[in-house]
Amino acid sequence: MQIPHDTRNALETVVSLVNTIPEAHGSDGLPDVEALYGFAQAHRMSGVGDLGPRDLRAVQAVRTRFAEVFAAPGPREASELLNDLVAAAGTTPQLTDHDGYDWHVHYFAPDASMADHLAADCGMALAFIVVAGEQERLRRCEAPDCGHAFVDLSRNRSRRYCDSRTCGNRLHVAAYRARRKEAAG
């Protein structure tokens, strides 16, 4: 599956946003406005102006809706959620070539709030996944103590863990030790 850089960036951003939900790791990854600024900077979001508590609440609400998309049982449910998100953001597609990137599409208005920016760009990235018939690529980590969201972009759709070096390796080592203990047993 070939994905343009702007869509890939939006997918990475939406995964990071969903993974800030408290249930994903015990504490809220976006507890305050300072964390919201940090999130915007980490994901190199353009056009983010002054942010306040209202922006934080709006982004947290968008984040909850994105989590619902990852949990949607099928494309019809996912599309309804995405249509609502994108429509509420007042999507206005524009071609742009900024910050050294070649031409790509921004789906948010130039003066959009951070929540609308995320809803429009990330919502459209997820919509492309659904339209391509690839919704099963929107997954949760299978590690029992994790549950982070991720987008499986592997060729054969076989990825099971958010990070094979941490969650996957930890489970494989535990299974190996259990087999060794049983064999010695």
TrEMBL record:
Q: Which domain of life is it from?
A: Bacteria
Recorded hits in Pfam families, A to Z, give:
ABATE, zf-CGNR
Residue ranges of domain Zinc finger CGNR in the record: 137-180
Query: What is this protein's name?
Result: CGNR zinc finger domain-containing protein
